TrEMBL record:
Gene3D superfamilies cross-referenced by the UniProt entry: 3.40.47.10
Protein species of origin: Potamilus streckersoni
Keyword annotations of the record: Phosphopantetheine, Phosphoprotein, Transferase
Stated family: Belongs to the thiolase-like superfamily. Beta-ketoacyl-ACP synthases family.
Gene Ontology MF: a single term: fatty acid synthase activity
Pfam families assigned: ketoacyl-synt (PF00109), Ketoacyl-synt_C (PF02801)
PROSITE patterns tied to this protein: KS3_1, KS3_2
GO biological-process terms attached to the record: fatty acid biosynthetic process
PANTHER family: FATTY ACID SYNTHASE, SI:DKEY-61P9.11
Protein name per the record: Ketosynthase family 3 (KS3) domain-containing protein
Origin organism lineage: Eukaryota, Metazoa, Spiralia, Lophotrochozoa, Mollusca
Origin superkingdom: Eukaryota
Domain Ketosynthase family 3 (KS3): 4-340
């Protein structure tokens, strides 16, 4: 294993269905808890949208998703955001700020240390449900009282601000971007963060992914494309797969060169190696995965970083769910901390 350009994970934060922080998430994993459940009526009325017949237009043939409790509550003033502006901010911005805060606390990294630093932010995101909700206010019959807050709507709904908001709140001066490569968005975001550190664009990188589900519209188009699981469960890499189940949440990692992290006596979770490629036209149709390209990617990452495959502890990949996968292949290898 080549440690010269090794990237260390020095802080983590997250909130997911059934877990409002990383400690609760570890518990969830340990006990094998499944928090993909029937969509509650305070999100939307399943009875009005459900039909078991996948050919029924305007209907969903699935009723399940992984959703967080108390999803619309947050401490906006912790991040210097007024109550008026907070009302116009996408939940995905809120989740990201909270998870970045958790990750910094986990890594023992202070705001003072970060302010003015060459730290980049790379967040993956493909949903914009909040924008759909907000734009409904501007249709015929809009409540005039809401117009006074409209000046926050642009920054509140733009996905580019998911990452930019973090840079602004913490005064970070490295590149800041939100990446959409569909299901692989967070993986590609972390890959770009690793690359930026190796290129000396950043001393550290805050990376991750975020998703919020508020309305059934996306479910409708995914059901029409037969991408959703009728059982409401993901069975990636299994012959039981009949589609996938959607979920929401946010996960953030803080990355730094291993050499620097050791010098600064950081809390090191693991070393991470990443790789990325595209399928091009090696598989058909455009939604089909390419076995050839996925194998090529694994081979490239192993050889580029001189990795002993027996030392790999964890592999994260963009899983195939039978009917669809984004053509952007991404692989991340996490190696045991004891190796360094």
């Amino acid at each position: 294993m080549d440690l010269k350009d090794a990237i260390a994970i020095v802080g983590i934060g997250g909130m997911f269905p059934g877990a409002k922080n990383i400690n609760e998430f570890w518990r969830l994993l340990k006990h094998g808890e499944n928090h993909v459940k029937e969509i509650p009526k305070y999100r939307w009325n399943n009875d009005a949208f459900y039909s078991p017949d996948p050919n029924t237009g305007g209907k969903l043939y699935t009723t399940h998703a992984g959703l967080m409790d108390r999803h619309d509550e947050w401490d906006n003033r912790l991040f210097g955001i007024s109550d008026a502006e907070s009302e116009r901010i996408d939940l995905q911005q809120r989740y990201t700020l909270e998870c970045v805060h958790m990750a910094l606390e986990d890594g023992g990294i202070t705001r003072k240390e970060l302010s003015g630093s060459k730290t980049g932010v790379y967040m993956g995101c493909m949903n914009d449900d909040y924008k759909m909700a907000l734009y409904d206010d501007f249709k015929v019959g809009m409540n005039p009282d809401k117009e006074k807050d409209a000046n926050y709507s642009v920054t509140g709904t733009s996905t580019s601000i998911i990452s930019a908001r973090v840079s602004y709140v913490y005064n970070l001066l490295g590149p800041s971007m939100t990446i959409d490569t569909a299901c692989s968005s967070s993986l590609v975001a972390i890959h770009l963060g690793c690359q930026s550190i190796r290129l000396d664009e950043n001393d550290m990188a805050i990376c991750g992914g975020v998703s919020s589900i508020m309305y059934p519209e996306t479910f409708l188009v995914l059901c029409r494309a037969r991408m959703m699981s009728a059982k409401g469960q993901c069975h990636a890499f299994s012959d039981m797969a009949d589609g996938y189940a959607r979920g929401e949440g946010c996960g953030v990692v803080i990355l730094q060169r291993l050499e620097t992290a050791l010098q600064m006596k950081r809390k090191i979770w693991a070393v991470i190696y990443t790789g990325c490629n595209q399928d091009g036209a090696t598989a058909h149709p455009i939604t089909a995965p390419s076995t050839q390209q996925q194998l090529e990617l694994l081979k490239t990452v192993y050889e580029r970083h001189n990795i002993d495959k027996s030392q790999i502890q964890y592999i994260e990949a963009h899983g195939v769910h039978t009917f669809c996968t984004n053509q952007f292949n991404e692989i991340q290898l996490i190696l045991r901390k004891t190796n360094f």
